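INTERNAL AUDIT FORM
Audit reference: QA-55
Scope: verify that the stored structure record matches its stored sequence.
Auditor: D.O.
Record contents follow.
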Amino acid sequence: MANDSAAQQLNAMRPEVAARLIFESFKKPARTAVRPADAPVLARARRVPLEVDGNPVAVYQWGDGERIAVCIHGWSARATDFTAFVEPLVDAGFRVLAFDNPGHGDSGGDTATLLDIRAILLALQERVGPADTVIGHSLGVLYAFYALNHGVAASHLVALSGVSDFSYLIARYTAAMQLGDETVGLLRRHLEQMFGRTTIWEEFSSHNNLSGLRARVSLIHDADDDFVELSQSEKLAAALGDRAGLHVTRGLGHRRILAEPAVVSHVLNEIGGQRPPASPARAGIAEKGR
């Protein structure tokens, strides 16, 4: 009902007003609070001072291992989304770095773009060296593909519930709101003006950021994800071919996949950290190709 009401209100507005309103709301992520269950892990982190483009970036480090794992969260999320991965990665000999994206968590700024995330990853790379592994979730996957195709180094990319098409979430939202073509066109124009070019839809999509990618890729997605559909990871798997494997879980949705022990174990096995559970099929993981 709420969506129906919002759709009616938006469609009652002039297209230019509705498009501007949607654009401004899209630029403003929610600053989510630290979940109580994540607080003890966050308390054990060391803060790494970092400023990028004049904004302070909240960077957290666990462990001192030689292999570096960098975690990139999605929209209206925060670094502590990866809490379940921290201790297993540290135990496997990794130094874990995660950061709150601009406009999120304890970082400065009002919004985050894939250009911002690339700048942060380059700054971290200059400070601590190249990552062995980058782990992204949701829009963090789209950010990671762009960054790893534009100067950021990593040996392995783990893509959880990832977005491939830059236009994907906009297309889903505008379809759900039953917005008219004029409003959708104006919204797309606002985004093009934000980046100063009309090529962003192809240029920023993950499946178009593979030419400079040197990392092996592990794609993991839940069949019941109703926020980012499995078809997005399937599209990436098709584009990557034998450079990636797609592993499909069931019943975890978009967020629980980040806390599922079987998924954490599977990731560690993929990056050479530890063996997975004895029966991954019983843990809800199926594998599609390699």
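Auditor finding: record pair retrieved intact. The longest strand covers residues 131-137.
Action required: none
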